[in-house]
């Protein structure tokens, strides 16, 4: 057997084995199952500690952008006209949110943590100086007092109204952005504090929220079921809330939005518990996106999250008292936040009833600037990019006993909205791409084997054809050489015809011998005598 034949047979054997093994692995999905099992399986406490190290100190920078609605026609609104606002901002703060007091519970199946948040102003990402810029907005402490006095006797309200007017306090106030955000000493609250010492005389939308946490959380680690990874078990010791009017609405569902289980499917709904909204919301798949070279699924709240209970009966539980419901796109949260009649929505009443949008001039809702969404890497469940957008509003209406409100048309008045954004940093993105590349190579290893087998099959065909062609050429050359040798031999062995008659003796000398064949001229030699 020649060396060429050996190579052909070896290539054929290797090719056959690769194809058989590769196709068997593809059909059995061995490597994909192995990866999925690794993502789902139980992990050791050491591995868990390493995994939660990044969870404790999330690397992507989080930014809070605050936008305010400056009221341009307060007198016209109080006279019964439509309010007009102008958006100012953003005023951007870097948010730091490490998890503290992380403690594993119940053999590592749960973890306890606090999540304090602190904010640092970022001037290069802001539109102005919050300590200098002025904004005119609704005097929320005044509205809270009027709302509280609704339960008092009618005769008490005019007296309180005159007293408040004597202090020079109006329905609209003018303050710096910093004061409205981080707090100021309110003159009305200071007077009330003298009667009720438990009332805080300072007011601010973010008052006492810099450096504080939103409560005590206990999370599932996913050790028993990977689908429970990151889900909230209890919040402030509660497994369900009590201020909404149905058991379903009071449920604490999902994660806190920082992590999700691996192997996310496009068809599933993801739940997030938002402590600032006092409820859980769900997100649905929207589209595939790419962030810094990483493929991700985009999830966003669908239209039915804040839909009117007439169109989505499951939202009836968020009407408090039961039956007193607002329209589509808004949620009254004053049930869990005592004081003013606070209402939350998406910025500029995005996805809300057009009546709320048309009630105020200067609003322009659009998907690009006002949609809340999460971009998640589906294999790991890690958020790659997030935009949480929410608007704070207050209900302004006529309050009997307060003459300054007698011409007001009831309006859900926008105060400000926040855009909380986070995008994976470059180092983490590079590590993620490397991890996903390894996962892709391992999961597609059977396909690589099949591909290599196909390549060797092509090589085998080429070798076989060339070997066949080589043999044909050898045979052709041997035939040509044989034919040429035969022709040459025939030319070299030609003979003279043999005579069939004896020569006429009379014409020859007597001593000339008889000859047969060709005549060769030779001189006769005489015999020598002894």
TrEMBL record:
Domain of life: Eukaryota
Location of the protein in the cell: Membrane
PANTHER family: LYSOSOME MEMBRANE PROTEIN 2, SCAVENGER RECEPTOR CLASS B TYPE-1 SR-B1
Family, as annotated: Belongs to the CD36 family.
Keyword Coiled coil: no
Membrane-spanning intervals of the chain: 7-31, 435-465
GO biological-process terms attached to the record: protein targeting to lysosome; receptor-mediated endocytosis
Record region (Disordered): 497-517
Record keywords: Glycoprotein, Membrane, Transmembrane, Transmembrane helix
High-level lineage: Eukaryota, Metazoa, Chordata, Craniata, Vertebrata
Molecular function via GO: scavenger receptor activity
Keyword Magnesium: no
A Pfam family reported for this protein in Swiss-Prot or TrEMBL: CD36
Cellular component aspect of the GO annotation: lysosome; membrane
Annotated protein name in UniProt: Scavenger receptor class B, member 2a
């Amino acid at each position: 057997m020649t060396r060429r034949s050996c190579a052909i047979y070896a290539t054929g054997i290797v090719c056959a084995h690769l194809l058989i093994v590769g196709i068997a692995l593809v059909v059995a999905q061995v490597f994909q199952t192995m990866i999925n099992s690794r993502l789902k399986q139980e992990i050791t406490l050491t591995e868990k500690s390493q995994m939660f190290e990044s969870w404790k100190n999330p690397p992507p920078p989080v930014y809070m952008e605050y936008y305010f609605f400056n009221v341009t026609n307060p007198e016209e609104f109080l006279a019964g006209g439509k309010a007009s606002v102008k958006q100012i901002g953003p005023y951007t703060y870097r948010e730091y949110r490490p998890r503290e007091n992380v403690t594993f519970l119940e053999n590592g199946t749960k973890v306890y943590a606090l999540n304090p948040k602190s904010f640092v102003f970022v001037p290069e990402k802001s539109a102005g100086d919050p300590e200098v810029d002025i904004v005119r907005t609704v005097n929320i402490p005044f509205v809270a007092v009027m709302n509280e006095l609704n339960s008092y006797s009618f005769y008490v309200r005019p007296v309180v109204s005159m007293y408040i007017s004597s202090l020079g306090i109006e329905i609209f106030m003018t303050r710096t952005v910093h004061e409205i955000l981080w707090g100021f000493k309110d003159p009305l609250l200071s007077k009330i504090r003298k009667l009720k010492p438990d009332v805080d005389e300072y007011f601010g939308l973010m008052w006492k929220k810099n450096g504080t946490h939103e409560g005590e959380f206990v999370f599932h680690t996913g050790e028993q079921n990977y689908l429970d990874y990151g889900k909230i078990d209890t919040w402030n010791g509660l497994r369900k809330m009590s201020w909404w009017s149905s058991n379903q609405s009071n449920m604490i569902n999902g994660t806190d939005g920082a992590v999700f289980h691996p192997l996310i499917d496009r068809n599933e709904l993801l739940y997030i518990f938002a402590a600032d909204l006092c409820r859980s919301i769900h997100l649905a798949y929207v589209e595939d996106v790419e962030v810094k070279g990483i493929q991700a699924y985009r999830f966003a709240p669908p239209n039915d999250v804040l839909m009117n209970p007439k169109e989505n009966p499951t939202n009836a539980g968020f009407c408090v008292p039961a039956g007193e419901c607002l329209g589509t796109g808004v949620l009254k949260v004053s049930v869990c936040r005592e004081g003013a009649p606070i209402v939350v929505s998406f910025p500029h009443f995005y996805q809300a009833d057009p009546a709320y949008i048309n009630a105020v001039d200067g609003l322009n809702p659009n998907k690009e600037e006002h949609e809340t969404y999460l971009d998640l890497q589906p294999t790991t469940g890690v958020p790659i990019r997030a935009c949480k957008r929410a608007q704070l509003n207050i209900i302004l209406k006529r309050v009997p006993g307060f003459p300054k409100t007698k011409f007001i048309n009831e309006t859900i008045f926008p105060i400000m909205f926040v855009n909380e954004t986070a995008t994976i940093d470059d180092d983490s993105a590079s590590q993620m791409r490397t991890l996903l590349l390894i996962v892709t190579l391992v999961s597609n290893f059977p396909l690589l084997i099949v591909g290599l087998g196909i390549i060797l099959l092509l090589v085998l065909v080429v070798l076989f054809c060339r070997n066949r062609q080589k043999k044909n050429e050898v045979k052709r050359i041997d035939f040509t050489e044989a034919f040429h040798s035969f022709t040459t031999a025939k030319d070299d062995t030609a003979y003279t015809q043999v005579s069939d008659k004896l020569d006429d003796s009379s014409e020859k000398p007597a001593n000339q011998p008889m000859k047969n064949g060709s005549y060769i001229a030779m001189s006769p030699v005489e015999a020598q005598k002894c």
